[in-house]
Design goal:
Strand content: over 45%
Helix content: under 10%
Largest sheet: 5 strands, mixed
Order of helices and strands: EEEEEEEEEEEEEEEEEEEEEEEEEEE
Structural class: mainly beta
Distance between the termini: 160 Å
Shape: rod-shaped
Length: about 290
Amino acid sequence: WLKVTVTDACTVLPAVDSVLVKVRAPLQITLNNDSTICKGTSVQLRGTPRGGDSLNYTYVWSPSLSNAKVNTVSPPTKTKYYLTLKDNCSTNAIDSITIDVLSALKIAGLKDTTICYGGSANFAPSVSGGQASQYVYQWNNGLGTALNQVVSPKAKTIYRLSLKDNCTKPSDSVQITVDVRAPLKINKSLSKTTLCNGDSVLLNLVFTGGIPTQYQWTLNGANTTQNRLFLKPTTNTHYAIQLNDNCSDLDSGSFDLVVNPTPKVSFTADKTNICEKETVQFTNTTTGANAFAW
């Protein structure tokens, strides 16, 4: 209160008056606490004003936002926001808030690959960004939700992995292709499968599939490097072939060679001593032959 008294050294009673002078509280502006958000999401910035002339409050944001005490922002990277409060009377008030932004979700460490038939591919991706404690992994082709996987497709297959954390937008996904080499295959041809004792058979081998530079094959358990072999069995013989490339599932095959026995020529006579012009009856007792000539 301010009081004024006026006297004139004559008037008995002085003149008195007073006035109440109110001083507004200084302007204050308070923003909510600093926070961290996920990439692609938003947060509300809320200013709480006090003091000054509330009827003339003006809000000025930097970086520029709407002139309201509450704004919703979705910064792409860590950003510091300033809010200045004015009332065209008091000294301006200012406060700031820092919004940190988690990095985007990212899957790395996966690439297209080729495996052998019967082989497997190991998936061990690395993941980053977002909220690690809330990671959710999802594979296609029925692989499930484990991050690391081992697959053994029999044909070319495309696999997809998606990564979510129920916060970051967008989620991340990666597609990889696993190609599969053709299975090992033995193709054989024989010049004949039945032979006489002392004859030979030509065996031709053609291999396909797998890794040709790593072919290894055996004939009846014995290693060989020949694709053309002359076989000369003396008795009926079973042959087994096995093809390997140290990568694919083995291939195997077999065949049989039949060896006809060497004919044993013989015959008998119904008598061995005869008179002139007497006849003798010969009987052929030869074995192992199907044609005869006298």
